[in-house]
Amino acid sequence: MITEQELAELSFADAPKIITDGVPGPKAAELLAEAPEFESMTRGGGGFPLVFDVGKGVTVKDPDGNLYIDVSAGVGVSSVGRSHPRVIEAIKRQSQILTHASDISNTRRGELAKKIASIAPPGLRNNCISYFTQSGSGALECAIKFARRVTGRNQILAFHGAYHGVWAASNAITTGDQYRRGYGPFMGGVIHAPYPYAYRFPLPLGDKSCEEVCGDYVDYLLNTPYTAADDVAAVIVEPVQGEGGYVPPAPEFFLKVKAACEKHGALFVADEVQAGTGRTGKMWSIEHSGVEPDLITFGKGMGGDLPMAGVIMRKDLAQQLDDMSQPQTFAANAVSSAVTMTNIDVIQEGELVTRAAQLGKEVLDRVQAASENLPIIGEARGRGLMIGIELVKDRETREPADGDMMMKVVMGLLANGIIMVPCGRNGNVLRLMPSLTITRDYMNKAVDILLDVLGTV
Prior knowledge:
The chain has helices at residues 4-8, 26-34, 73-76, 85-95, 107-119, 136-151, 169-173, 177-180, 210-223, 251-264, 315-318, 334-349, 352-370, 403-415, 440-456, and strands spanning 54-56, 59-61, 67-70, 128-133, 155-159, 190-193, 232-237, 267-271, 295-298, 309-314, 377-383, 386-394, 399-400, 418-419, 421-423, 429-432. It is of the alpha/beta class. It folds into 2 domains: 4-71 and 352-456, Aspartate Aminotransferase, domain 1, CATH 3.90.1150; 86-349, Type I PLP-dependent aspartate aminotransferase-like (Major domain) (Aspartate Aminotransferase, domain 2), CATH 3.40.640. It is globular.
């Protein structure tokens, strides 16, 4: 396993370090004020009061020279940190040979497809075909199209709290209000079912677990007459729900959903865009459940510094798709492919997946212990280095922390040099999702500052 000293050399030393009187500093503030004049603020981070200037490992500098520890990893993208030396070398080497090749075959993309087949989860490992895109939204678009073509069916079943992208079909199965309100009507044939979010589950459980109730309901929908779910091509589910609040259900839910899919004849699609690439202590988060998916979507941490996403599907399914039916001009260019293979090598050779499981447990145990004296923490949960901390106004009633409270927390963290991005259905969940290369020292510094800030709000 890679050593702490080796990991420390990948980032700037002495983080965090704020040298301006406040954040954003004057140079960053000027750039932020100018941005809406030239660039759309519909992007997710448009309103975040930070400007990235230099990135190294898990650390970031802004234009004023302030140094931050980024425990958001660029929203789960920088799996091996920013500008990893081996990644930079791969970019230099490959860019001198071949960059763009259209969607015609190139040597690097062929090597990448083989590598992905070798690391795919059981059921797909060495029995799969990869289709490449540039973004997670694109991967979900293609997964939906492929599932409909293979099954000859129309409907898609997804879940409350889901985030699967913001294009056409992917936006239709995403549930966040900010992505939907005013943009409809959306693609028809979409059904949403409850996700096992135990902390805020709206239905009585009796003597069953949240996972049992949700799994049984999916089976009811798919396999009972008169539910109108009579033409379902695929069930698409996040093995750990991401934007919905970092919710990690027990395996029983996925086992029940998979069984219901098989009975109905629907495909089981695991959306691994945010939870995959080692983040949860397994290369793929669905591996925690023992379920063998029919398709996987991937993105974010696979490409890291360069865009890379796609769909992994069983060979027998892929063989039913029409050749040349889904062009993708810029997908898997030679440089992105070389970088993705390098990321996978760095993760495997450094045993970063095992380390993510260990370090994640240490952090979660620490936050849960601290929560006894911090009533603002309603629940801390997670798997590996995918940890959600749900903040509340009242622990007894579970009333969510409001926007003012969350702003105080996020800005308090930023003022102390910690980049942390909220999520959740109520916008009240802090997420710890650092690069897998974060040192224990920087991880503990970030948690120290987090707990101090929470104690003052």
